[in-house]
Specification:
12 helices, 424 residues, three-stranded antiparallel β-sheet, alpha+beta, Helix Hairpins
Length: 424
């Protein structure tokens, strides 16, 4: 959430940011409600001063044993007016909050302005695999190796869900454990295992609500949501809390399943593992001091990159343009792994700096050590990394002519030292 004072003082910047994102928002109501709020606050301040003055006069009259009935009657009318204005202020603030919740974060000045075609490749790593045969897709490989059953997953739940089996299930588990071990043992993150269901305030705090509600799975009887990413529960660990400056930075990593309806995406990349409604992910979340957040973002990206480097997966890092930026992010880097069988670059990680946007919504503050001043922390998160697209890249890049798949060396300790996935 943006600060209302900032919006009033920097309207041109906010308007430009909304335009650069390709959005259209009505500003008239926001300014109208804020003007009304200011007017009501001014009237309240005057009435409260009158009430205090009348109260002092009544006290003086009573001490002097004089008649105070008229003054008491007058004060009651003032009190009634104050009650009415306070109720009006509550209604105005509620409307203001609704409007503020749909205004996106300000994109960082360094990112490209425009749509997906303006995406900027920052760097790339690794050599694309070469084959002396036509590489198969992960769908063909998984059917040949009998490690993923798309048909029975659809029977159990519906389309775009996954049933891993045998080596497929073991590979998924190995990847999760490998990533958690890397981030906790080498990169300094503390592992947490949060709930997969969160409440409405949690989803609002990280920015998924109200804008993206149609893309979420919701339990209507309890008004709880299946998490779209571990970012939601992990960031909300400190909702409505104050962190001391010397506690920062705080790094958390978490494995969770993630659930997304992908509303509006039907018919797009719907085969195989590219776009599914439930997938596994290891997430990285940071709470940092504002002055360090961009340095911390670069470290976060490098932590995610190391996963792909150790797995030997060619990838590229792309800076997203304004129209591709998520609602809450100020800047975002995507990591795209190459998949040889389908000849595509697949997003396996998004690493974002939200600055104070999420912290303001979730009311997460830091207390400065020397001045005791309170301010909002900066939050960051990134996939470290996401499945199932990483599985696609491994199957397709490490495939052999006989349709077996070489297991990346880093995963072998998690798979009893096996070097290859072969047909039974």
């Amino acid at each position: 959430m943006l600060d209302l004072k900032f919006i009033r003082e920097s309207p041109d910047l906010v308007k430009k940011s909304i335009k650069d994102r390709g959005l259209k928002l009505d500003w008239d109501d926001l300014i109208k409600f804020d003007d009304s709020r200011r007017k009501v606050l001014s009237e309240l301040e005057n009435l409260r001063a009158e009430k205090n003055k009348a109260n002092d006069e009544i006290t003086a009259l009573l001490k002097a044993r004089k008649d105070a009935k008229q003054k008491i009657s007058s004060m009651k009318k003032i009190a009634e007016s104050i009650d009415q204005l306070e109720e009006k202020l509550k209604e105005i603030n509620a409307e203001l909050d609704k409007l503020l919740l749909v205004i996106p974060n300000i994109p960082h000045a360094s990112i490209p302005v425009g749509d997906a075609s303006c995406k900027k490749t920052v760097r790339s790593w690794g050599e694309l695999p070469k084959f002396d045969f036509k590489p198969a897709s992960h769908i063909e490989l998984s059917q040949h190796l009998d490690i993923i059953d798309f048909g029975r997953a659809a029977k159990i739940t519906g389309s775009n869900f996954i049933l891993y089996k045998g080596w497929g299930a073991r590979l998924e588990r190995a990847l999760i454990n490998f990533m958690l071990d890397l981030h906790t043992k080498k990169h300094g993150y503390t592992e947490v295992f949060p709930p997969f269901l969160v409440n409405r305030p949690a989803m609002t705090g990280t920015g998924q609500l109200p804008k993206l509600e149609e893309d979420m799975y919701r339990l209507k009887d309890d008004d709880l949501f299946l998490i779209p990413t571990a970012e939601v529960p992990v960031t909300n660990i400190f909702r409505d809390e104050i962190l001391n400056e010397d506690e920062l930075p705080i790094y958390y990593t978490a494995y969770t399943a993630c659930f997304r309806r992908e509303a509006g995406s039907y018919g797009k990349d719907t085969k195989g593992l590219i776009r599914v409604h439930q997938f596994d992910k290891v997430e990285l979340v940071k709470f940092v001091k504002p002055e360090n957040s961009y340095e911390e973002l670069e470290k976060l990206v490098r932590d995610a990159e190391e996963v792909l480097q150790i797995l030997g997966l060619p990838y590229r890092v792309a800076m997203l343009p304004t129209e591709d930026l998520s609602f809450a992010a100020s800047i975002c880097y995507d990591l795209e792994a190459y998949a040889a069988g389908i000849d595509q670059w697949l997003e396996v990680s998004s690493c974002s700096n939200f600055e104070s946007f999420q912290a303001r919504r979730a009311n997460i503050k830091l207390r400065r050590k020397d001045t005791k001043k309170l301010e909002f922390v900066h939050t960051l998160n990134g996939s470290g990394v996401a499945l199932a697209r990483t599985v696609i890249a491994i199957l397709e890049n490490y495939q052999q002519k006989d349709s077996s798949v070489i297991i990346p060396e880093a995963l072998r300790p998690y798979l009893d030292g096996n070097e290859r996935i072969s047909q039974k």
